[in-house]
């Protein structure tokens, strides 16, 4: 679940929100008074996002980063593929 907060609320309850970012892998959006906003996310989530963006799409690094992002609900899970003759025939 993503949280959207005011800067005042974030400041008043910073420990609570930072714990949610780290413990529950939440993303917190903070609206600032100057009509700008910031996002607070865990270092792990940012690391895997950067890894996925920097890796070649068909590499092992990309596959691992993509799997980590799926586990963190950043990316949707892969659809289930029916295992029939047409599916296996593509590998011949």
From TrEMBL:
Q: Which organism is it from?
A: Limosilactobacillus albertensis
Q: What is this protein called?
A: Type II toxin-antitoxin system Phd/YefM family antitoxin
Task: State the family named in the UniProt similarity comment for this chain.
Answer: Belongs to the phD/YefM antitoxin family.
Gene3D superfamilies in UniProt: YefM-like domain (3.40.1620.10)
